[in-house]
Amino acid sequence: MEAFYMMVFGALASLVAALELTQSSKDRISTSSAFHSFKNSYLLVYSLMMAGDWLQGPYVYYLYSHYGFGKGEIGHLFIAGFGSSMLFGTVVGSLADKRGRKRACVTYCIAYILSCITKHSPQYKVLMLGRVLGGIATSLLFSAFESWLVAEHNKRGFDQQWLSITFAKAIFLGNGLMAILSGLFGNVLVDSLKLGPVAPFDAASCFLAIGMIIILSTWTENYGDPSENKDLVTQFKGAAAAIAAGESEFSLLNILSTCFYALVKSKDEKITLLGAIQSLFEGSMYTFVFLWTPALSPNDEDIPHGFIFATFMLSSMLGSSVASRLLAHQCPRPESYMQTVFMISSVSLLLPVVTNFLVAPSNVKGGSISYSGCIQLIGFCIFEACVGIFWPSIMKMRSQYIPEEARSTIMNFFRIPLNIFVCVALYNVNAFPMTVMFGICSAFLFVASLLQRRLMLIAEIHKSRSQEWLNMEEMDSEAVPLNG
Predict the structure, then answer these.
(1) Are the CB atoms for 423 and 283 separated by under 8 Å?
(2) Which of 7, 271, 314, 365 gives 20 to 30 Å between its CA and that of 279?
(3) Are 314 and 13 in contact (CB under 8 A)?
(4) What residues are paired with 266 via a beta bridge?
């Protein structure tokens, strides 16, 4: 079966190389040298930040088990991370909008470095503190950097369509190439050099520190709404008002309820739909992260986890390459083609359910990957390719629909239902059969496709009305008064 893994990896690598090397002038957007320099500067920092994140991922569970903690205790540590992101994410998002996105990016580096330092302690409470810090850092990673980029891009007067270039390259490099290189580097540190499971976290701290120095020395500050007469609560309520209609009294309960209420009644339905789509897709994606290993080795089959992870990341790079071509053209727009992407991803995560009924399960313990596992692996690679298309496309749509003054706050708002879902899934991961979990994820992605269609229709209506309004203004300006 080793030949099967190599064949899948080789096919994906060939497709990525072909897409990158055969881009024509039609697939590229003509830009300026100033934008090229700005883009490369951001990509360098973003790649360092993602390297710091990816270096930790494969070794978190391994480190906790190395310290002697059981599955239940490790599960609680993971839940603490997602719970921290849920509880503190919106607050730090509001602070980023008000106090500055550059400061928020520096705060991300500091929080994640401190989280890495806690990994040196085998004390459960210290590790729990590290997970809380990691949850806060994750919220900043997925909001502050993008918010800074969009604001700085607009402040420098670059074309709006050029954003899609930066988004696609950020996913290709940060979520694809850096993930593969980080996995290989971590393997060298732990397995080849025998430096122990804490070594990747120390290396991550170094990358984060280098990135922080570049941010401090080269980035300028930008804000959402820096008005001095707005405190944190007012800033937060403003973001909530952009999502849900009505000015209800602010309370902690409303923090959790507003996101779900917004699905029904919204001041700007496009923002609500975008947030719901993001929560549904990312919730399925993070659940998949916990499910793919037992799905491919239900009978303790011997599978190369590191090589499969690299294959998934290569699939993500393939998706981002496809997205860069799609985003280089005015048509089709992300609102349109993402419907198909969500449907394909829904079908790909339904494969474990289908193979469970159609392929006779093996009762042999150990050995190599089964026939159904091979089918599922191909489906999982397709899903990861959809993930690669999703990230730059959702970033592009967020840059269009989310108001600048509360961008970080709103982006973290919609991580609340995502984190709730992941915490519930983690807590009950052993309570439901794996096929049920995959079925739920597939259903979520199908709903995301329906909501994406609704978003497309609303965007088209808004676009046509705007065009009609412009035509009316032109007619009024060209009208000649009649002589009496």
Answers:
(1) no
(2) 314
(3) yes
(4) 244
Question: What is the spatial distance between Cα 80 and Cα 132, in angstroms, rounded to a whole number?
Answer: 6
Contact 117, 205 (CB under 8 A): yes
Is the distance from CB of 452 to CB of 339 less than 8 angstroms?
Answer: yes
3-state secondary structure of 129: helix
* Distance between CA atoms of residues 405 and 97, nearest Å: 7
Residue pair 101/144 in contact (Cβ under 8 Å)? The answer is yes
Name residue 276's amino acid. Answer: A
State the residue for tokens 């499971």.
Answer: 197
Rounded Cα distance between 245 and 260, Å, is 12
Which three-class secondary structure state does DSSP give residue 227? coil
Please report, as a single letter, which amino acid is at residue 7: M
pLDDT per residue as tens digits for the range 10-65: 999 999 999 988 887 766 778 899 999 999 999 999 999 999 999 998 788 889 98
Percent of the chain that is helix, strand, coil (3-state, to 5): 80, 0, 20
From the list 354, 352, 346, the residue with the least C-alpha distance to 449 is: 346
**CA–CA separation, 271 vs 468, rounded Å?**
23
Q: Which amino acid is at 261?
A: Y
Give helix then strand counts, H and E, for the chain.
20, 0
Inter-CA distances, 221 with 42, 99, 142, 164, Å: 14, 9, 18, 22
93 vs 82: CA distance, rounded Å: 16
d(CA 430, CA 252): 31
End-to-end CA distance of the chain: 91
Separation CA 283–CA 423 (nearest Å)? 10
pLDDT for 83-107, tens place per residue? 898 888 778 888 888 889 999 999 9
Label each residue of 182-219 as H, E or C.
HHHHHHHHHHHCCCCCCHHHHHHHHHHHHHHHHHHHHC
The dihedrals phi and psi of 266, each to the nearest 5 degrees, come to -135, 145
Cβ atoms 177, 317 nearer than 8 A: yes
- Structure tokens, 104: 């928020």
Distance (Å) of CA 368 to CA 64, 169, 371: 27, 36, 10
Q: Which residue has the higher pLDDT, 117 or 470?
A: 117
d(CA 134, CA 128): 10
Contact 59, 375 (CB under 8 A): no
- Token pair 């280089």: residue: 328
Backbone angles phi, psi at 73, to 5 degrees: -65, -40
